[in-house]
Design a protein that fits this description.
97 residues, mainly beta, SHC Adaptor Protein, five-stranded mixed sheet, 1 helix, 5 strands
């Protein structure tokens, strides 16, 4: 796999990318994934006001990503033997965010 350069774009104008080979990683982040229930992951996502949240699913003990969808619902992406599985979770009427 080809290593992509990391560049600082804080003082530059956005540039038009013409092909996938033009993409550059501009930020890297190391995260520590917490072991949470799915509801706790939704709560953390809302508390931080993020669009997605990486965590270890207590139910499966595997990495998962909870993400916000349109229409007051959430999506859950889980890894299983190298394949990603997607689930949709609807926000309940009693949830207050």
């Amino acid at each position: 796999m080809r290593e992509l350069p990391i560049i600082d774009t804080s003082n530059s104008e956005p540039e038009q990318l013409s092909s996938p080979d033009d993409y550059q990683i501009v930020r890297e982040k190391n995260l520590v994934a917490e072991r949470l229930s799915r509801q706790q992951a939704i709560d953390a996502l809302e508390l931080l006001d993020h669009d997605s949240y990486l965590f270890i699913d207590k139910e499966t003990n595997k990495p998962a990503v909870m993400y916000r969808r349109r229409g007051y619902s959430y999506g859950l992406t889980m890894m299983e033997n190298g394949k990603a599985y997607l689930h949709q979770i609807k926000r309940t009427e009693s949830a207050k965010y």
